[in-house]
Amino acid sequence: MTSLLLLATLFVAPALFGCAPESGTNPEPTADETTPDTTTEEPDSAINPPYRAATPEEAEKYPKVTNLPTLYINLDDGKRKRDITKEQYIPGTYTLVVEDGVGIYDEPLEIKGRGNYSWTFQQKPYTIKLGKKADLLGMGPARTWVLVTTYSDKTLMRNYLTLNLAVDIGLQYSVEAKYVDVYINGEYNGLYVLTEKIQIHDERVDINEYTEGLFEIEVDWRHNYDCEYCIKLNSGAHVMYKQAEAEDIGEERKKELYKEFRLFLTTVDKSMRKGYREFSKYIDIPSFVDWYIVNEFVKNFDSGFTTSCYCYIKNGKLYMGPPWDYDTCMGNQNVATCLYPDGYHVRYSPWFSMLMDDPVFFRKVRERWTELRNAGVFDKFLSDILEIPKTMIAQSEQKTHQLYKHKLKSRDLRGDLSLYTFEDEVDYLYNWVKKRIEWLDSEWKLN
Length: 447
Fold this sequence. Notes:
This protein has 447 residues and is α+β, with helices and mostly antiparallel strands. It is built from 12 helices and 13 strands. The chain has a 7-stranded mixed barrel with strand order 2-3-4-5-6-8-7. Helix 10 runs antiparallel to helix 12 (422-444). It is globular, with a radius of gyration of 22 Å. The model is unreliable at 1-45 (pLDDT under 50).
C-alpha cells in the first residue's frame, strides 16, 4: 500500500508552496505512447483518513490515470453532463484516487455549474458539495469545493501558479489549489484546478458570520445593476455583501449587519484620502500590501476592481483577500494594458489609486517586494513555469489538449498575438513574467 504522508509531498501538495499562516477555476482520448512517464520513490504502507484502500473491483473501475490525482464524478438517475446547470445542484457520487488503489470511493455529492464567461467553455467550471466534509488533498475538511477550468489558459498554469503564490507569501486565508484529472460519467473532462471555495468557514475565511463580513468587489454592470446587499462608495468601489447567507444568520440580522458594514466601509473609503495615519486605523496594511503585490505582479484585468476582488472585516478592520480567478492574467488578455509586462494596472483601481499615492504605503510595498525578491519567491515562480510542465502536468497536458484539440488554435483572448502550441505558450508566459519582474524591480526594488 501507499503512504499518505509521502503521497502528500509527491502528488497532492505542490512541492513549491506551503500553507498560508494566520498572519497577515466527450469520449476519453487514446493515450499517446510517447506520453512522458513520471517516476516516484515507493511509499510505505500507511493509509490515513479520509483515504482507504480500494477493493479489487474499485481499483479496476477507478484507475489513477496520470501521476496526478484523478477525480471521478458519476451523476445519479441517468443524468448526463449536459444536464448540469448553474441554477440547481444535481446529485451523484465521487471517487478521488490519490494513488493506485488508494482514495475516497463512491461517496455522495451534488454538483452544479458556476462562472459567467467561463460557463460558455466546452470544459466548464463546477461547484461540488460533498455529502459530508472531507479533507481533499490536504486542503482542510469542508463540504464545498470548486473545480476551476483550465480551458482559456493554453499553459494550464495561470490559476495554479497565482493562487499558490498568495499561499506561499502568507496572504491570510488564500485558497490552496491542486491539480486533478476529472472524469464525468466515465468520460475524461480534462485537467482542472481543485480549490477551496471562498466562504466563511473555520477552514477557509475564519471570521464570525454574526458580527463580521465577507465581501466581493465587482462593478455593478456585472450583475445588471441589481444587487440587494451592495454598497456603492464614493471612490468608485462597488462592494457586495454576500456572506453570511440569510438562511444561516436570519434575514433580520443580515440587514442589520449590512447597515453596519455600509457605515464602516464608507468611513474606510473616506479615510484613504486622508493619509496613512488615518487609513491605517481601518485597514490591515499587510494584507492590502500583499494582495496588491500579487495582483499587480500578474497584471490581472479583473483585479482592477472589475470582479472577483474579495475583502473581509475582522476584528474591526478591513482585510484584502482571498485572491481569486487568474486564467487571463500574465499577458493572456488583450484588454487595457494587461497584455504588456510593463506599466501598472491595479494601481489605478479605486482604493489603490489613493493608497499608492501615499508615500508611507508606497514605501511598504517597496519594502515587501524587496523582501520577497531577496527570499527568491519570484525567481522560484519563474522557474516553476518551466518545471511544472515537465514534472507535474506533462501527462495531463497531453490528454487535455488531445481532448480539446481546437483549444490551442483559439484567438479569443489575444487575437493576432496568439500562439498555437503548448511549448510556445509556456515560453511566452516565461518571458512575460521575466520582463514583468524586471520592470517591477525598476519601480519597487530597494538597493
